[in-house]
Amino acid sequence: MNATPIPPQTHDGEPRIPKRKIYAWALWDWATQPFNTVLLTFVWVPSFLTSYFFLDPDLAASGIQPDGGRLNCDGGENALTEYCGGLGRLATELGWGITIAGLLIALLAPVLGQRADAAGRKKTMLTVFTGLLVLAQLGMFFVDGVPALFWLGVTLIAAGSVFGEIAAVNYYALIVTVSTKRTVGRVSGLGWGFGYIGGIFALALVVAAIFTGVLDGEDPMTFQIVALGAAIWTVAFSIPVLVAIPEPPATPDSRKVNFFAGYVELVRTIVRLWRESRHTVWFLAASAVYRDGLSAVFTFGAVIAGQVFGFGFTDLVIFGIVLNLVAGVSTIFAGRLDDRFGPKPVILVSVGGLVACCLTVFFGAGGGTPVIWAVGIVLAALVGPAQAASRSFLVRVTPEGREGELFGLYATTGRAAGWMASALWAVFIAAFADQTLYGILGIALVLAVGFVLLLFVRAPERERPSIS
After folding, report:
1. At 468, is the secondary structure helix, strand, or coil?
2. How confident is residue 261, by pLDDT bands cut at 50, 70 and 90?
3. pTM, entire model
4. Is the pLDDT of residue 370 over 60?
């Protein structure tokens, strides 16, 4: 009888992971980054979907200054004009759309994660939902800059968020196939870092197209082309992970049940975790709050830069390149701090700093663009490490064999609180006469609550527990 081959091991007995597999896995972050960076954060949403393109033409014309520029809504009388109020309403409606997307993720992600575990289909589910994300981006190609198509744009952005998040559940679960307990922090940080660097390249392509005259920020077709390019990018760079990473086997003790019975299994999982790995449940609850704040920073930060500080199309693209460069470097570096000191200190420093950044923008808005530039750079250095360390934290406390299910819960708990930041963003803007700047207070509040909750969560053990 032939002996089962033993995989190569390091000097400490852990399996040796080929670097090609690690980089193939990390490239998925790169592949999906145009949706997050170009479409959601820095170009399509702030410069197009929540801009004058989708205002009534007469209202849009009222925001044009004698020098041809657009009115800044940074406070005082400007913020109370009909033009700025119209932009504020677009920002509010975007917030409600993102809230609905969050609720859908909360309903779908855990059950789909459990079913992927039971059937051994993590990579299959990653493929399916990455494909749906591509279709959502293709749909944005058909959104012209007219008010009648505003809600189609919001729907496609929300749908892309749902598809991307559920794909990420399975992507995160695959991290155990390309890392060990000693390297999970740096591998997680590498993935986030690849994502940010991918965002830099994608935004650099947009800048090149602007300076060569291919793109014009005053033409709606520019943003339709950008959406098409993002879809092509996602297809091209998703291929390595789908080719190089094998489909993990089904979890032996995970029950195969129908979709609706999956919610029963979800309750059983939470009860079992509460009984046998309680600190995992506490982390899921605490991280749900601050991660919703992190998501809101990405979603709405550039909307503030565009509407409040008057950043135009080119300004936002350059802003995005600088911030992604800072975020990519800081995230990769923070992965090593994670492995050395643990993820909890990294998260606390990052989230606490983000609260300070939000308050600085709100109270210092009168300082103009130097304020948003300075705060933006600090914010970029903090967001990525918090996200990567959160993923590492969960891996370290996830029971063996429950990766898909627990990352489904990770998405669920995050989205169970996912209505908070987007809803508070919308509520604060509406409560203060459609002034977009006030939305940042809602984000700061969510981050502050998440920071306090995390203080009471026990740091993860070096060894991951097993659930029988």
Report:
1. coil
2. low
3. 0.76
4. yes
**DSSP for 42-109?**
ISHIIIIITSGGGS-HHHHHTTB-TTS-BPP-SSHHHHTSHHHHHHHHHHHHHHHHHHHHHHHHHHHH
List, in order, residues 6 or more apart from 382 with CB less than 8 Å away.
Answer: 330, 349, 350, 351, 353, 354, 357
What's the CATH code, domain 19-455? 1.20.1250.20
Six-digit token pair at 228?
């098409």
Q: How sure is the predictor about 260, in pLDDT bands with cuts at 50, 70 and 90?
A: low
Residue 418's pLDDT band, with cuts at 50, 70 and 90, is low
**Over 70: is that where the pLDDT of 251 sits?**
no
Average pLDDT of the chain to the nearest whole number: 82
Alpha carbon distance 194, 203 (integer Å): 14
Q: Which of 444, 119, 86 is nearest to 255 (CA)?
A: 119
Q: Which two tokens stand for residue 104?
A: 């859908």
Number of Cβ atoms within 10 Å of the Cβ of 243: 9
Per-residue pLDDT reduced to its tens digit, 130-139: 999 999 999 9
Give DSSP secondary structure letters for 211-280.
Answer: HTTS--TT-HHHHHHHHHHHHHHHHHHHHHHHHHSPPPPPPTT-----TTHHHHHHHHHHHHHHHH-HHH
Q: What are the residues whose beta carbons fall under 8 Å from the beta carbon of 415, sequence distance 6 or more?
A: 102, 103, 105, 106, 109, 165, 292
* Residue 363 pLDDT: 92
Which pair of tokens denotes residue 268? 């059983």
**Angle at the Cα of 223 from the Cα atoms of 222 and 225, rounded to 5 degrees:** 70
Across 59-73, average pLDDT: 81
SS3 9: strand
Nearest C-alpha neighbor of 105 from the set 429, 465, 462, 407 = 407
Domain definitions of the chain by residue range: 19-455
Q: What is the mean pLDDT of residues 278-303?
A: 85
Q: Which of 43-47, 415-419, 438-442 has the lowest mean pLDDT?
A: 415-419
Q: Cβ contacts of residue 156 below 8 Å, gap of 6+? A: 136, 137, 139, 140, 143
DSSP string, 369-401: HHHHHHHHHHHHHHHHHHHHHHHHHHHHHSPTT
SS (H, E, C) 174-204: HHHHCCCCCCHHHHHHHHHHHHHHHHHHHHH
